[in-house]
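Incident log, support desk, overnight shift.

02:14 A customer reports that sequence design results differ from what the structure should imply. Their input is reproduced verbatim below. On-call engineer (initials T.W.) acknowledged and began investigating.
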């Protein structure tokens, strides 16, 4: 949100080009095996998944706070005053006092997080810390992850902030369109570890071991929580995105708030479309919160559409989602955009999913969003 203009201004040419050669993809290499080779992250079975759209994310967060028995951890890039903040603060104040509460906000994204916001949280027994206080940190090296982890057993991630922009149903101008996922299963430990490493950097101590309970399978879906941190060469965010694009054989559908990808990613999208893969992009339209990012993304439209990529701009409000639908089983929901900041400078986190049911639901939501968007005509 606040960094979108900077993102558009950062040239992807400042970074070395990264290419992932998967032509052809070895027949004996599964997607899970490729994930491990590229990212060092294991896809694990045993998950339940729930897609949560728009303001319903606050219902889910409040539910998790009320149901927590040992710990609740919240990591937010944006935390601003308003009804959403008040609701979360009230839920935290009403929780069982025995439940540990740790809150981490980014100094840049939550620049309005002052004593008035902090005081009700500390009064409720929450330990509140700020990630990379300003001045003293580079403005662009921020924590863009969005996480709620309850008892080390349930996690919520996606594009949400604790702010009133995320209230509503994503069809009114002041109520953004966004997508989130609540998940249970082994990947929650990966999300908890992401919180732990950021918590330590902000001056917090090691988390007690009860926040990492034994991971028991609870459902049929496979998933992994993939983190990325700043890198001057190749980040996990860039590796993950290239791998997902390379994996697409039937379809690649992207919902991306800020679409300013490096040239190698554009080339992959065009090459996939040339090969007959159904490549579609849904991004922010004129209601974008960053006119700079909005203007930058349009430079790529003509070339993409000439190669058969279909492009839509969301009409009613800011399209803030960061999701991918790949073929019939792979899906991604997280905090990562396709711009230089997300790919190289920010702390990011995404849930990568291998599950036909979740994939189908996310694809259906993509099609519904396109009905509220304007398709860009080929030049």
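02:41 Re-run completed on a clean worker. Output:
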């Amino acid at each position: 949100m606040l960094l979108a203009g900077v993102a558009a201004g950062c040239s992807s040419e400042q970074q070395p080009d990264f290419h992932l050669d998967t032509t052809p993809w070895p027949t004996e290499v599964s997607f899970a095996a490729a994930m491990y080779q590229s990212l060092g992250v294991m896809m694990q079975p045993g998950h339940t998944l729930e897609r949560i759209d728009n303001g319903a994310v606050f219902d889910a967060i409040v539910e998790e706070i009320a149901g927590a028995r040992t710990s609740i951890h919240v990591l937010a890039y944006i935390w601003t005053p308003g009804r959403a903040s008040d609701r979360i603060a009230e839920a935290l104040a009403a929780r069982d006092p025995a439940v540990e509460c740790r809150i981490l906000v980014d100094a840049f994204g939550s620049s309005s997080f002052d004593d008035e916001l902090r005081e009700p949280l500390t009064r409720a027994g929450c330990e509140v810390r700020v990630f990379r206080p300003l001045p003293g940190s580079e403005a662009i090296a921020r924590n863009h992850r969005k996480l709620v982890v309850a008892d080390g057993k349930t996690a919520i991630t996606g594009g949400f902030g604790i702010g009133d922009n995320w209230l509503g149903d994503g069809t009114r101008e002041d109520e953004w369109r966004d997508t989130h996922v609540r998940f249970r299963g082994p990947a929650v430990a990966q999300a908890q570890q992401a919180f732990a490493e950021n918590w330590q950097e902000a001056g917090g101590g090691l988390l007690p071991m009860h926040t990492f309970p034994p991971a028991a399978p609870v459902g049929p879906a496979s998933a992994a929580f993939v983190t990325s941190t700043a890198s001057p060469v190749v980040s996990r965010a860039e590796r993950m995105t290239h791998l997902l694009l390379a994996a697409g054989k039937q379809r690649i559908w992207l919902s991306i708030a800020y679409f300013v990808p490096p040239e190698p990613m554009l080339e992959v999208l065009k090459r996939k479309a040339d090969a007959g893969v159904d490549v579609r992009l849904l991004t922010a339209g004129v209601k974008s919160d960053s006119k700079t990012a909005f203007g930058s993304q349009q430079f790529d439209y003509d070339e993409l559409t000439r190669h058969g990529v279909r492009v839509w701009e969301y009409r009613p409000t800011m399209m803030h989602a960061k999701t991918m639908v790949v073929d019939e089983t792979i899906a991604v929901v997280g905090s990562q955009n396709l711009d230089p900041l997300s790919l190289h400078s920010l702390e990011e986190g995404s849930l990568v999913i291998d599950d036909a049911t979740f994939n189908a639901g996310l694809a259906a939501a993509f099609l519904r969003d396109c009905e509220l968007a304007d398709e860009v005509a080929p030049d």
